[in-house]
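Let's practice the habit of predicting before peeking. Look at the sequence and jot down your guess about where helices and strands might fall. Then scroll down.
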Amino acid sequence: MSSRRAHYLVLAFVLLLAALIRTVPLTYSHFWDETVFLQHAKVIIDGRTNYEEFHHRPPFLSFLYALGFAIWDNVYVANLVQGVVTALTVVFGFLYARRGFGLTAALFSGFLFAFTPYFVEASHELLTDMPALALMLAAMWLFDKAGARYAFLSGILYALAIQTRFTSLFLVVYFALDAILSPKKIRSLAFLLAGAALAISPYLIWIRWNYGSFFYPFVQARRIVTEWTAPVPAGFYWEALLEVFPYSMWLFFGAGVLLPVAHGAMQRRAREDGGRLTGLAGLSDRTKREFVLLMWGGAFFTYMLSIPHKEVRYLLPLAIPVVVISALGLAEMFRWCARQARPVKTSGIVLGIAVVMLDYAPSLQELSEPWLDRSEREEVQIGRYLHEVSTPADTIYAAHNFPVFAFYSERRTVSLLPIQGEFDQAWRELMKQPGFLVYYHPAGIEETHSIYPSFKPDEKFLETNPNFHRIRAFPSAVIYRYEPPR
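Done guessing? Here is the structure:
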C-alpha cells in the first residue's frame, strides 16, 4: 500500500510539473494559427464578427479558450487552459498503459509524455495537436474498460477529439483493429460509434445550417493540405521523426517492438495443440494490443506521407504507439537491470541519469527563465498599430499573417490569399471597403501558405497605384492606406 501511495505521489508531482512547463512563459504574442483559435474564442464569447475560419477549423479548442476568457478576459488565460489540457496526456497516457501493460510501463509512459522536449514545446503552442492527443488517449483508455457505458463515453471523447483536430478521425482505425483482434469488443465498438455520433451531431447540424453540407469543414481542410498549399517531399517526415522523438526513445521503442514478436512466438509454442498453432486468437490481450498499436501507427504514418502539405507537428498522434511501446521496452530494460549484480545495476542507474539529463531535462529549461513574456512580435506590433490608426469602419487587407492582424487589431480583416492566382483581375471586386493593406517583403515571409511563389500585390503595384498610400514601414512589412476605386 505504501509503495502504491508513493507511486501516485510521484505521478502527481510529475503531472504538476508537466502542467507548469507547458504553461510558462505566459505569452502576449502569438503567431498565425494560434491567433485563429484565439479569434474564434472571441467570436464565441464576445460575438466578434471581424474574422473567422470556422469553415475549415474545428471548434472545440476555441470553445475551451472561450470558457477561460469568461473567467478571466486576458490573453494569458489561453496559456493556462492549454497547459492544463495538454498535461492530461500524462494522465491518460498513464491510465491507458497501466490497464494494458502494468504499473511500471505506465509510470515510464507518463514520464515520456511529460518530459519529451518536442511534446512540451508543442503543448505550449496554442494549437490543437496536443489537446487532441489527450482526448484520443482518454478515448482509448475508456474503450479498454469493460461495459457499454465506458464504450459510449469513449465515443463521446473520440468525437471531441475530432472536433479538436480533424485528423483524429483516423483513430477509428485503431478501434476497428482492436475489435477485429478481440471480437468481444465488437459490441463496445457499436456503443463507441453511437456515442461519437451523438456527440458530434450538434456540430454537424450547425455546419449544415451555416454551410449547406454536413462535411463542409472536413472537405475544406482536406483541400487546403492537398490542393491549396505547396507540396512537401515525403523525406521531410523521415527527418521529422528524429525531431519529435529523441534518440533514446528510439532505443526504448526498438526494445519494445521485439516484445510482441517474442511474446507471440512463446505463446504460439505454448498453445500448440496436436502440432497446430492457434494463430492470433491464441495471443494474450497484451500482445494483441501491442500489435494493434504498431499496425495503427504504421497506417497513420503512411496516411500522413500521402498528404502533400506536411508539418512536424502533424506526426504527434504517432506519440501514442511510439511512447507506449517505448515504455514497454524501458520497463523490460529496467527489470533486466534489476536482476543483475550491483556493478551492472550501478552502471544502469548512471546511464539512465545521463539519458534523462541529455534528452529530457531540457524540458525544464523554461522554469529558469521569466514566467511572463510581454514582448511583442513584429506582426503583433502591426496589429496593435492598425487598431490605433483605424476606425471600426476600416478593413484590413493582407496576404500574410492576416489572422494575427484580425485578433490584435479587432478590425474586419480580409485575406488576399484566395485571389493570388487572379489578383490583377479580382482585387477591385474583393477590396470594396476602405482601410489598410499590409505588404510583406518577400524576404520577411518564412512560410507562404500559398501555392504561388510570389504574393500579390507586389511593391511596384502598390507604389504606382493611386488607391494605395504608404503610411508606415516596419522591418518586414509596409502599411498602406487604401481607398477603393470610385
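How did you do? The CA atoms of residues 18 and 114 lie 5 Å apart.
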